[in-house]
Write a structure and sequence with these properties.
The chain has 246 residues and is mainly alpha-helical. It is 50% helix and 0% strand. It has twelve helices and no strands.
């Protein structure tokens, strides 16, 4: 099993993976750490559902943000009319405006996304207490409460990007060890993992993400989340003839 997973990982963890993956957006700012962090965080929050749909929405948002998401955030106006009518699944235009306004508050205070993750459990606390943050609806899905046992796939995906090294990920955060990352569990990774006997839990929640990560540590103790490429690749591209994709 280890050799099989490593073969798949090596196939998909290449620079060619970037162009069709949401990680393409922070890669637009290579070498600019603050813009990578902001772009990566925003991108991760939209990385669910049908890939073509959320990439289209992200293209729209990054067109508005222009050459520097940081400058856009610092100068963000809550009444930005280019976002009027924007929506994606659970998110409304106000949810997105509230996100950008909260980020603006954060960066104007001299703090960054990195600072929120450096101090454990402050991401949810900060965004949920932001002045214009809706208390329910799409915003509460966007910034999940970690105590509710959700898989938190989008946050774990963002951490993978920031912590693991190139060629696909960035490796710009050294205060988290890659061995401590948790698999960004989605439907595809969950289905493939169960078919391969790597995951028993039926729900795609935090307990399942922890169970799968623990199993992958048996094969890659220093970098279990590196095998996300193997699971994701098999699920999306259906390269594994032994796995039935549901």
């Amino acid at each position: 099993m280890k050799d099989y997973l490593e073969k798949l990982r090596a196939k998909y963890e290449t620079p060619d993976f970037i162009k069709d993956d949401p990680v393409q957006f922070p890669h637009r700012f290579n070498g600019d750490i603050e813009n990578i962090e902001i772009a990566g965080f925003i991108t991760s929050l939209f990385s669910y559902g049908r890939r073509e749909a959320f990439i289209s929405k992200l293209n729209f948002l990054f067109e508005i943000m222009g050459k520097s998401p940081l400058n856009f955030i610092l100068n963000f106006d809550l009444y930005e009319n280019k976002l009027d009518g924007f929506c994606y699944r659970f998110y409304t235009d106000y949810d997105v405006k509230a996100l950008f306004y909260s980020l603006s508050e954060l960066y104007k205070s001299g703090r960054t996304i990195r600072d929120l993750f450096y101090k454990k459990n402050t991401v949810y606390d900060f965004f949920s207490s932001s002045k214009f943050a809706p208390k329910n609806g799409g915003f509460s899905f966007m910034i999940c409460n970690p105590e509710k046992n959700g898989a938190n796939k989008r946050m774990h995906l963002f951490l993978r990007w920031m912590v693991r090294p190139a060629p696909v990920d960035f490796g710009i955060w050294d205060f988290i060890d890659k061995k401590d990352l948790i698999i960004p569990l989605d439907v595809h990774a969950g289905n493939v993992s169960r078919k391969l006997g790597l995951l028993k839990r039926k729900q795609n929640d935090f307990k399942a993400a922890w169970e799968l990560t623990s199993k992958l540590k048996e094969f890659r103790p220093d970098d279990p989340v590196g095998l996300d490429f193997a699971l994701f690749g098999a699920g999306i591209h259906k390269e594994n003839s032994r796995v039935l994709i549901l």
